[in-house]
UniProtKB/TrEMBL annotation:
Compartments (UniProt record): Cytoplasm
Occurrences of domain RNase H type-2 (ranges): 1-174
Similarity comment: Belongs to the RNase HII family.
Catalytic reaction annotation: Endonucleolytic cleavage to 5'-phosphomonoester
GO cellular component: cytoplasm; ribonuclease H2 complex
Organism: Novosphingobium subterraneum
Keyword Zinc: no
Pfam families registered for this protein in UniProt: RNase_HII (PF01351)
Protein name in the entry: Ribonuclease
InterPro entries: RNase_HII, RNase_HII/HIII, RNase_HII/HIII_dom, RNaseH-like_sf, RNaseH_sf
Designated gene of the protein: rnhB
EC numbers on record: 3.1.26.4
Role this protein plays: Endonuclease that specifically degrades the RNA of RNA-DNA hybrids.
């Protein structure tokens, strides 16, 4: 995320914002700022684990963002929510980075990135719910809610479920 100036007002951790406010901010961010999303598919998450997939998704997002930035602008520093960066964990990572614990509530550019990421993922889950209506993904966004877990027990996993997701892995042992 390269935050525009002036930045959209009201940026905060995406989890602290209402769905309506996130959607409004997403539209402003996408219209006025440079942004990119890194997507890692369920099979790759299973292969790498959640942490490795997160590092890959960050790398993919920054690579895509760098393609939008003029070469003379360059990348100053990548701010990352959390306590670790992909440096030394992904061979493609080549940018200076600074991890910030709680960064999605502290740094406006991380807040904006968290809004874009959450809206992107929620949109994917709403679309997936159309093909797999039993799981309630339009409501639970794929998280392990009682509704989702009950549907897994009744209908089994879909190709979109990570095989390493504990409830799916447990079903496979039965």
């Amino acid at each position: 995320m390269v935050l525009c100036k002036p930045r959209p007002s009201g940026l905060d951790d995406s989890k602290k914002l209402s769905a309506a406010r996130r959607a409004e901010l997403e539209e402003k961010i996408k219209r006025r700022c440079r942004w990119a999303v890194g997507v890692v598919e369920p099979e790759e998450i299973d292969r790498l684990n959640i942490f490795g997939a997160t590092m890959l998704a960050m790398t993919l997002a920054v690579q895509a963002l760098c393609e939008q930035i003029a070469h003379d602008e360059g990348v100053g520093e990548v701010l990352i929510d959390g306590n670790l960066t992909p440096h030394g964990r992904r061979p493609e990572w080549c940018w200076p980075a600074r991890p910030i614990v709680g960064g999605d509530a502290l740094e406006p550019c991380i807040s904006a990135a968290s809004i874009i990421a959450k809206e992107h993922r929620d949109r994917i889950m709403r679309e997936a719910a159309l093909a797999h209506p039993h799981y309630g993904w339009e409501r639970n966004a794929g998280y392990g809610t009682p509704e989702h877990l009950a549907a897994l027990r009744e209908h089994g996993p879909t190709p979109l479920h990570r095989r390493s997701f504990a409830p799916v892995a447990q079903l496979q042992l039965l």
